[in-house]
């Protein structure tokens, strides 16, 4: 059996005594894109934080390429190339776009940088502007580019398209697919069903802190997820 890039078993956790995520098991293979859908407050962000180490687990195991990383902190997981694009406060307002994008040390004169700058001309236009002066949608784009530029084995993107205009959402989807073809894996918490349809190999639906369904990509994916969200 092929070892999965990320293998999660019975994961639970939350905020201090408040338990949010309950007994989640999932796995993501090399080059796979898993989307996570679910209504507001069901625990998508909390799950992402448990995976990146921003929150401690209360139960369960996380394995990266077969090695147990459950006890690793956020820094150690980042060193193992788990990248996390946060839903909120995802850029440093006092720094320029250029400096925000250079924080990982990975954004230089390389193919990935050129891909991102060519894909999103607005990023280049705003290169020397303080990120705090950008619009919400522009900030999300900077955050997305930073997470992509980290070149993670697995990249967690938490609602990357919030406030982003449709043509750039489609471009984000193209970047994710292009990077996945190169063998990178993604978990994307997302409300935008068009993006889910564009990028998902699988789509999990969360409710009350649990993963309640898992759909494979198909022509009926959008309909199935939508039905479930309306329940
Ligand atoms: N810092 C916190 N302390 C205590 N409870 C929290 C905290 N952050 C979130 N929660 C609670 O955890 C639950 C899940 O929140 P979470 O942000 O993970 O949901 P979500 O699915 O990402 O929602 P959204 O779609 O709005 O982003 C909610 O009930 C929320 O109130
Ligand atoms: Mg969230």
TrEMBL record:
InterPro entries: AAA+_ATPase, ABC_transporter-like_ATP-bd, ABC_transporter-like_CS, BCAA_Transport_ATP-bd_LivF, P-loop_NTPase. Keywords: Amino-acid transport, ATP-binding, Nucleotide-binding, Transport. One of its GO terms (molecular function) is ATP binding. SMART domains: AAA. Residues 3-229 form the ABC transporter domain. The keyword Cytoplasm does not apply. Belongs to the ABC transporter superfamily. This is ATP-binding cassette domain-containing protein. It comes from Enterovibrio qingdaonensis.
């Amino acid at each position: 059996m092929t070892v999965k890039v990320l293998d999660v078993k019975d994961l639970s956790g939350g905020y201090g005594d408040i338990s949010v995520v309950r007994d989640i098991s999932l796995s993501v293979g090399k080059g796979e894109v898993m989307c996570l859908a679910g209504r507001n407050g069901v625990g998508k962000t909390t799950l992402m934080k448990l995976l990146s180490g921003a929150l401690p687990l209360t139960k369960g195991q996380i394995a990266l390429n077969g090695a147990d990383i459950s006890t690793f902190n956020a820094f150690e997981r980042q060193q193992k190339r788990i990248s996390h694009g946060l839903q909120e406060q995802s850029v440093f307002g006092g720094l320029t776009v250029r400096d925000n994008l250079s924080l990982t040390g990975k954004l230089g004169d390389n193919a990935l940088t050129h891909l991102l700058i060519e894909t999103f001309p607005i990023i280049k236009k705003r290169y020397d502007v303080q990120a705090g002066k950008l619009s919400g949608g522009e900030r999300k784009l900077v955050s997305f580019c930073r997470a992509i530029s980290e070149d993670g084995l697995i990249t967690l993107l938490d609602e990357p398209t919030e406030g982003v205009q449709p043509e750039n959402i489609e471009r984000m989807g193209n970047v994710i697919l292009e990077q996945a073809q190169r063998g990178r894996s993604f978990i994307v918490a997302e409300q935008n069903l068009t993006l889910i349809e564009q990028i998902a190999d699988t789509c999990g639906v969360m409710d009350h802190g649990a993963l309640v369904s898992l759909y494979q990509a198909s022509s009926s994916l959008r309909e199935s997820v939508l039905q479930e969200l309306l329940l």
